[in-house]
Design goal:
- By secondary structure, this protein is α+β, with helices and mostly antiparallel strands.
- The chain has a domain at 22-70.
- It is built from 2 helices and 3 strands, in the order αβββα.
- It is elongated and about 80 Å long.
């Protein structure tokens, strides 16, 4: 996804989901959390561009691992099994 998206693009992407689903913000890829969506407002960013800002409404919980995997924030290890090295028996 591009770094900058428009309100139109965000609405278009959200329309692919069930309209009754709850919205959460996924925050901090290195230590992932789920946050509530807070207030919405508009203003200008540091470059002077007119933007809509989605506020952080506070932490809900840790981000579920399958969500972090889907966002490619953490590797999918569900199909991997630990290999055990065979240790030869000691002859006496």
């Amino acid at each position: 996804m591009p770094c900058d998206i428009t309100v139109r693009e965000l609405i278009h992407r959200l329309q692919t989901y069930d309209a009754d689903r709850i919205v959460r913000l996924a925050i901090a890829p290195d230590f992932p959390f789920a946050h509530y969506l807070g207030a919405l407002t508009e203003g200008h960013d540091d470059a002077g561009l007119h933007c809509v800002f989605l506020g952080d409404g506070g932490q809900q919980s840790y981000l579920p691992r399958p969500v972090a995997v889907a966002l490619r924030w953490t590797p999918d290890t569900t199909g991997q099994r630990e290999r055990r090295r065979a240790v030869p028996a000691i002859s006496r």
